[in-house]
Specification:
homodimer, mainly alpha, two-stranded antiparallel ribbon, about 65% helix, elongated
Chain lengths: ~210, ~210
């Protein structure tokens, strides 16, 4: 198909498609004439993934790294998850003290060597952010966070498809990144439900 | 204290403090001379909250709305939570179909009128994002998401402090927004732990 049809089928403007081509997110089509290229169904699917990443708040540079992990999967499913996480996290420069984070995640079975440095640094930075704001999470609430998140991760990893490595790659890389907005959105709804139950319903309803 | 001491005590540069003053995030200090103002401990605390919001990825405009909810709390704790959520969410323009989202959150006790339209629209957009990327969450995994998130929200709302409305405001507004990076970071660690348990440990350790 031509670029105009690719645009029509994905709802992405021709200008934006050209931008993704220039940025290397979308592979070039096959040249059918000096100023014309043809695109395949694979381009339609790749464009949908790009849109989903960008709309989830993933930057162009991060999206390029996520797509690179999709295109060049490492040998093991575990390394693949590391690659997906690394794509959306800043590199670890050793500037953050991970002691408190290590102590916290040891409660859900973390042992040295089990995860990427920058993932642990992410927990450390989040704890620092709360601390800097003078906000403390009580031990009771933190215990529920740890237990609930552990259940989520176990269900996710148990569900990694094993029928093909391509399906596993897609599940791990996209699932890790794209499900984040869903979990945050569900938490807001659940907080409002719990709040309505405790404090009474909102004045203006849905 | 002068602006230089406020900067030294918070680690925020004078230029950035002046920017927050211009943007209305930080209240002006008391004028002590035509070109000089003095700042109080309250400015130190407010600056820490602003830093925490900005570093959590909350924009300047969103931070202004979160701080406004802190400064002008609505009458009930439930409306307060709505104000905090509204501050960090795009307004609801009716452009998204919330039917699937309503169906989903009904499983955790949602009933019409229990939550803000834009919070429900957030779930709808997240589901659309997954759908657009051709990524589907299995019923088993979704059931774990819903149950785990419900537990988190219940623990959080049960912990709303009741000793003063100021403490309740701080807890609800900041907790809702600032805990997000912690939950996402914990999920990444928990995924890597579950993955190491299932697929073997990473090559390069922490």
């Amino acid at each position: 198909m031509r670029i105009s049809e690719l645009s029509a089928r994905t709802g992405v403007t021709v200008a934006t498609i050209k931008y993704y081509l220039r940025e290397g997110l979308l592979p070039e089509g096959a040249r059918s004439a000096p100023t014309q290229a043809t695109y395949e169904q694979a381009h339609v699917e790749r464009l949908r993934v790009i849109r989903a990443l960008i709309e989830s708040g993933v930057s162009i540079a991060e999206s390029r790294r996520v797509l690179d992990a999709l295109d060049h999967p490492p040998a093991s499913a575990h390394d693949l998850l590391g690659a997906a996480h690394a794509a959306v996290l800043p590199s670890f420069d050793g500037a953050v003290d991970v002691t408190a984070a290590e102590h916290l995640v040891a409660q859900i079975g973390w042992q040295r060597g089990m995860c990427d440095d920058r993932v642990l640094a992410g927990v450390a930075r989040a704890l620092e952010g709360l601390d800097d704001a003078g906000f403390s999470v009580s031990d009771d609430v933190m215990a529920v966070y740890l237990d609930s998140i552990k259940q989520i991760a176990h269900a996710e990893i148990a569900g990694v498809p094993t029928e093909s490595s391509e399906a596993a790659v897609r599940y791990v890389v996209l699932g890790s990144v794209l499900v984040e907005p869903l979990l945050l959105a569900l938490r807001r709804v659940a907080e409002q439900i719990a709040s309505a139950e405790r404090f009474g319903p909102a004045e203006a309803g849905a």
